[in-house]
Amino acid sequence: MQIAEWCKERCIDLDAFRFWAMGDLVDNRNREIFAEWLVGQAIGAIGDGDFRQE
Q1: Three state DSSP letters for the chain
Q2: In this predicted model, what pLDDT tens digit does every residue of 6-53 receive, in sequence order?
Q3: What pLDDT shows up at residue 42?
Q4: Residue 30: closest CA among 52, 4, 11
Q5: Which value, to the nearest 10 degrees, does the dihedral of the CA atoms of residues 11, 21, 49, 10 take?
Q6: Would you say residue 1 has pLDDT above 60?
Q7: Is pLDDT larger for residue 46 or for residue 4?
Q8: CA distance 9 to 34
Q9: Domain boundaries, the chain
Q10: How many whole angstroms separate alpha carbon 27 and alpha carbon 21?
Q11: pLDDT for 45
């Protein structure tokens, strides 16, 4: 079995997780993270492949 076939059967859907975990951007706990990302995007501080670290 090739990796692509294996992944289709077993990999998780990260977009589904993101929606589940942070789908409501109005929720108080998500606003800070969203604002941090929004400003980072606006000033070019977040590069491709970068991720947030606590």
Answers
A1: CCHHHHHHHHCCCHHHHHHHHHCCCCCHHHHHHHHHHHHHHHHCCCCCCCCCCC
A2: 666 667 777 777 787 777 777 777 788 888 888 998 999 988 888 888
A3: 92
A4: 52
A5: 0
A6: no
A7: 46
A8: 32
A9: 24-54
A10: 11
A11: 93
How far is CA 33 from each of CA 8, 17, 28, 49, 52, rounded to the nearest angstrom?
Answer: 30, 16, 10, 17, 9
Tokens of 6: 């294996």
Write the CB contacts of 25 (distance below 8 Å, at least 6 apart in sequence).
Answer: 31, 34
Residue type (1 letter), 35: A
Q: How many CA atoms lie within 13 A of 49 on its CB side?
A: 0
More confident residue, 36 or 4: 36
Q: Which amino acid is at 47?
A: G
